[in-house]
Write a structure and sequence with these properties.
heterodimer, A: mainly beta, 13-stranded mixed beta sheet, 31% strand, elongated, B: alpha/beta, Urease, subunit C, domain 1, TIM Barrel, 2 domains, five-stranded parallel beta sheet, 19 helices
Chain lengths: 274, 565
């Protein structure tokens, strides 16, 4: 069962599309879906004003696939709180994609805005290009970070990825900006590219693996040992790593793995191991 | 001339001893009258009619409430109220914005709310917010228990002078009652210290909390203020603090005359802890209830816990600091110059936590074991123990053993085994609920035109869609919660403002303050105050005073004082 949405014309004001979710679509006819409410700027409009709708909807959420076409970079909150089913986005998409999602799958061909999978509890998100800031991070002021699920970014990511994460996995194939894994409690973040610094600030547990260059290490991390590999779930990365423990300012025991070959500036720490 | 008739409701009006009789209530020009001839009629048959709800203790406005709003964006974003033709937009949840606070109280049928902790230095801010809180009448209690002037007058046993100062203060801050929070302790907190019990002298002042409480109690009697002193005890929120609570109540025992209350002990749930530490923590509700049952000089309010994510905020800086240390949450702590302190910490009350679950039982045990409902009033110390929007739930717990048992099944096992609550069968009647939420509150506050439906009273009325003749309320707790959540009608000053839980008319409420009438010249102390202001305060004396018409709808209530000049 696939429901296809396509953007009718380019939009210039933010559109809040909380109702685009398999949970909401399930059990509705295509005509009913077209009437679902969206917020376009400060106005409530039916979905059909913004999107063309076609396809066949299903009764059960887990059989439902929503396919969306067009430049959605102004469209926010798609798949908010979804529990099952699938959303495929063919282009770019805006902020708050998959907020508080509990299950199901979201795939994006293009780039996504900030707050991807904010406070998510389960399910998987895959992004083929870049993601913005605050991946998996809770809303401002809240400490209820990611509690499960997997986010994979094949491009680069912004600042504060995985803030307050308690469980789950974030994989970033490209580079990350500052403060990756800030306030990390548990769970794992794997960065295959470089990190811009301040990785793991305030972390008290969990694991951050950076396979590239880390611009600067926080002084509140101490070297623990050298490792010949690092492990994330089933995946094993075979290359030498420095293992640092921190953030000591928070009495933390989080693990920060930094690739030895890419981080020559950390060589001096090796002396402390002798 | 605007007239209204509420016909055939089951009327609960405890101050006039009306217990569920089917009656008509007539309203003309915002007041209750004998009868009306024409005008609108509300058919209230099969419904409960009560005076509008009164809340003696609810942190709804002022500097710390606003800091709490700023501290907690995550508290707001899931609880949004959209703008309508009549109402403004706003946010909840535990610290709602001002307009939303007014609407939400009104939707439940409440018409009067008191802000219980106003640092005099922040009085202007508090009144600005109160002015923006629609639908309800309001008032605010200035914090005086750690004020330098008060401490110095009381140390010298200059009660007359202290009374003159407090009278001046009521006028300067447009305040309603004397509030004491951890008396003396907040002054010590300015220097990173606290007081241990009511006989531990305040550093630098050589005065004990006992002397402060007794002194301000005497001052309150001299000034003849409508409300008694409003006390938040020393050692609040510490295991074993019930001893301090009993001492605090005992220390004014011999000041009482003709069986009248002279002290209001607020959010008593937080002051009824036994045990030596959190491990041996248990309920001391029986000890407190026993004392209150045999004495008549004190009234209490519950401060009932609700299992939710809320925000604690009090003027008790040292207590809030302890709470920060326990939770590790974000926090705000502040010293308000020579007057008081304050603190804010977000807090989650959990069913499965032994201490939290026991706190939940303590509040209900107090309400159920204190026999006289005029002595224990219903509050959640909004937002400290839970937001005021939980009142329907609390009413249900009081009225239905079944509802209590349903919660009991889900709480911590050790609590279930130990709490005296499991053995209590008492269930409040609607008449008692009307006392605990309206009549008793208005009486304790000395608001003569509130809390009853007698001729001449303000036409603040709530009508609930609840038929006590048809349904057995104790067996149908959901019906009680549902009815009290959305009033069928709320009438404020004779105007229908809420219908079926929706605001249909947005009105402004008054802000009450006490104007002390005395032969003495209250401004005699002005030169002395000005000198002290130059020396100690960050504001000029002239900028400190809240002017007569600072905000609209300020309404003075007069108190005839006996200050000798």
């Amino acid at each position: 069962m696939i429901v296809k949405l396509h953007l009718k014309k380019e939009i210039h004001v933010p559109v809040d599309a909380e109702s685009i979710s398999p949970d909401v679509f399930a059990g509705k006819l295509v005509e009913e879906i077209a009437e679902l409410p969206l917020w376009k700027g400060n106005r409530k409009v039916p979905l059909k004003d913004v999107f063309g709708v076609e396809g066949i909807s299903g009764k059960v959420t887990n059989e439902l696939v929503i396919h969306i076409d067009g430049n959605l970079s102004k469209v926010q909150r798609i798949g908010s709180g979804m529990t099952d089913g699938e959303i495929r986005i063919a282009g770019d998409v805006g902020m708050h994609l998959g907020v508080e999602m509990k299950g199901g799958k979201i795939t994006v061909e293009g780039n996504v805005g900030s707050w991807l999978g904010s406070s998510m509890k389960g399910g998987t998100i895959e992004v083929n290009k870049d993601a913005g800031d605050y991946i998996g991070a809770p809303y401002r002021g809240s400490t209820e970070g990611m509690r499960g699920g997997t986010i994979t970014i094949h491009g680069n990511a912004g600042t504060e990825a995985g803030r307050y994460m308690k469980k789950g996995l974030i994989r970033i194939d490209g580079d990350v900006d500052q403060f990756v894994g800030i306030h990390l409690k548990k769970g794992a973040i794997l960065v295959r590219g470089n990190a811009d610094g301040r990785a793991g600030a305030f972390m008290t547990g969990g694991k951050i693996i950076i396979c590239g260059h880390l611009k600067s290490l926080l002084p509140t991390f101490t070297i623990d040992s050298m490792k010949s590999k690092a492990k994330v779930e089933e995946e094993i990365i075979k290359e030498p790593f420095y293992l640092f423990i921190g953030d000591l300012a928070e009495h933390g025991s989080g693990k920060l793995y930094l690739a030895k070959n890419k981080n020559k500036h950390l060589e001096t720490h090796e002396k402390l191991l002798q | 001339m605007k007239e209204l008739l509420i016909k055939n409701g089951f009327v609960y009006d405890p101050l006039n001893k009306i217990d569920g009789e089917t009656m008509d209530i007539a309203v003309r020009d915002g007041k209750i009258v004998e009868e009306v001839k024409k005008g609108k009629t509300i058919d209230a048959s099969g419904m409960v009619v009560m005076p509008g709800g009164v809340d003696i203790h609810s942190h709804i406005a002022g500097a710390k409430v606003n800091s709490g709003r700023l501290l907690r964006p995550e508290d707001h974003y899931k609880d949004v109220e959209l703008k309508t033709v009549l109402t403004r937009s706003g946010v909840g949840y535990s610290i709602p914005s001002t307009f939303t606070t007014g609407y939400r109280y009104s939707r439940m049928g409440w018409t009067t709310v008191m802000e219980p902790a106003m640092p005099p230095l922040k009085a202007k801010h508090t009144h600005e917010e109160l002015n923006d809180t629609p639908m309800v009448d309001k008032g605010a209690y200035p914090l005086l228990g750690s004020n330098w002037f008060v401490l110095e007058y009381l140390r010298a046993k200059m009660y007359g002078e202290c009374a003159a100062f407090v009278a001046w203060m009521m006028n300067a801050t447009k305040g309603y009652a004397i509030k004491l929070v951890n008396p003396g302790g907040l002054e010590a907190w300015g220097f990173g210290r606290n007081v241990r019990d009511i006989d531990d002298p305040v550093p630098n002042f050589d005065i004990t909390p006992r002397e402060i409480i007794q002194g301000l109690c005497k001052v309150n009697q001299i000034l003849n203020l409508p409300h008694t002193i409003h006390v938040h005890i020393n050692n609040l929120g510490k295991p074993g603090n019930y001893v301090t609570t009993l001492e605090t109540m005992r220390c004014v025992e011999n000041l009482a005359t003709d069986n009248k209350p002279i002290m209001h002990l607020t959010h008593c749930q937080f002051s009824a802890f036994a045990g030596e530490d959190w491990r041996t923590f248990k309920s001391a509700s029986e000890e407190i209830a026993e004392y209150v049952n045999s004495h008549s000089h004190v009234t209490l309010d519950m401060g009932q816990i609700v299992f939710t994510n809320t925000t604690t905020m009090t003027a008790d800086g040292p207590f809030q600091f302890t709470l920060y240390q326990i939770t590790g949450n974000k926090w705000v702590n502040n010293d308000v110059e020579t007057e008081t302190s304050s603190g804010i910490v977000p807090f989650q009350y959990k069913r499965k936590n032994y201490v939290h679950a026991t706190q939940w039982t303590i509040g209900l045990e107090l309400a159920l074991q204190i026999k006289d409902p005029w002595k224990i009033l219903l509050t959640t110390d909004h937002p400290n123990a839970g937001p005021f929007t939980a009142y329907p739930k609390v009413i249900t717990w009081l009225m239905s053993r079944k509802a209590r048992d349903d919660v009991m099944k889900k709480v911590n096992k050790k609590t279930r085994r130990k709490a005296p609550l499991s053995a209590i069968d008492r269930e409040y009647s609607l008449y008692e609920i009307a006392i605990a939420t309206r009549a008793g509150q208005a009486k304790a506050l000395g608001l003569e035109s509130k809390g009853h439906l007698g001729v001449g009273a303000d036409a603040d009325i709530s009508v609930y869609n609840l038929d006590p003749k048809k349904t057995n309320l104790a067996d149908n707790p959901e019906a009680i919660t549902k009815a009290f959540k959305k009033a069928a009608y709320t009438i404020k000053d004779g105007e229908i403002v809420v219908r079926d839980g929706e605001v249909v008319n947005s009105v402004n409420g008054r802000t009450y303050w006490v104007k002390v009438e005395t032969q003495a010249n209250l401004f005699e102390i002005e030169p002395e105050l000005k000198r002290a202001f130059e020396k100690y305060y960050t504001v000029k004396y002239e900028n400190y005073l809240v002017p007569q018409n600072f905000s609209a709808h300020q309404t003075p209530v007069t108190a005839k004082a006996r200050i000798k000049s």
